[in-house]
Amino acid sequence: MAEYSTYGSVAVLQVNNPPLNTFTRHVLQALVSGLERAQRDPAVRSIVIAGKGPTFPAGADLEELLGTAAAPLLSNLRMVDKHVDTCQKPIVCAIHGTALGGGFELALASHYRLAVPSATLSLPEVHLGMLPGAGGTQRLPRVVGVKSAIQLITSGQDIKAQQALTLGLVDKIVQGDLLKEAVSFARSVEGRPLEDRRISQRTVPDADKVDEVVEATRKTILRKARGAIAPLTCVQAIQASVLPFAAGMAREADLMTYLMTSWQAAAQQYVFFSEREVRQWSHPRDKHINFRTAKPTVIKSVGVVGAGTMGAGITISLLQAGLKVVLLEVNKKQLDKAIAVIQKTLRQKSASQKMSQLTTTMDYSQLSDVDMVIEAVFENLRLKKEVFRKLDVITKPQAVLASNTSGLDIDKIAAATKRPDKVVGTHFFSPANVMRLLENIYGKKTSAETVATVMQLATTIGKVGVLVGNCAGFVGNRMLGPYRSEALFLLEEGVDPQDVDRAIEEFGFPMGPFRMTDLAGNDIGWRRRIEARLTTEHGPPPDTPALYRRGDRYCPLPDMLCLQGRLGQKTGAGCMMLQEAKDDLTENIYIRFRTDGSVFDLRRLLAHTKTLEELILDLLFADDCALLAHTEAALMSHHAPSMCNRYDPGSRTALPDPVVLQMIQDYRQEHGFKKRTISSQEIVERCLYSLINEGFHVLDEGIASRALDIDVIYLFGYGWPRHTGGPMYYVERVIGLEKLLRSLETYSARYPNHSHLQPSPLLRDMVAKGGSLAALGTTDSKL
Ligand SMILES: CC(C)(COP(=O)(O)OP(=O)(O)OC[C@H]1O[C@@H](n2cnc3c(N)ncnc32)[C@H](O)[C@@H]1OP(=O)(O)O)[C@@H](O)C(=O)NCCC(=O)NCCSC(=O)C[C@@H](O)CCCCCCCCCCCCC(=O)O
Question: Ranges for the 3-hydroxyacyl-CoA dehydrogenase C-terminal domain (predicted)?
Answer without folding.
Answer: 473-575, 683-770
